[in-house]
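Backbone-to-sequence.
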């Protein structure tokens, strides 16, 4: 086993890395019975950290 295979990553470290680079989540779920669509869920999400270089979209622009 190499060093890379044994390396463990804490959940906090993983979340920090994902938020620093940003994550895009896309998916479609359809609940269907007898070829009849009952529920359809479309998911499009962008998850990213907010800092001085990437301000929050809801932040006021009053400076």
């Amino acid at each position: 086993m190499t060093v890379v295979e044994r390396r463990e990553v804490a959940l906090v470290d993983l979340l920090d890395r994902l938020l620093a680079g940003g994550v895009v989540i896309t998916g479609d779920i359809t609940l269907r019975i007898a070829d009849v669509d009952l529920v359809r869920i479309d998911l499009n999400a962008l998850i990213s950290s907010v800092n001085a270089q990437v301000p929050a979209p809801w932040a006021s622009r009053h400076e």
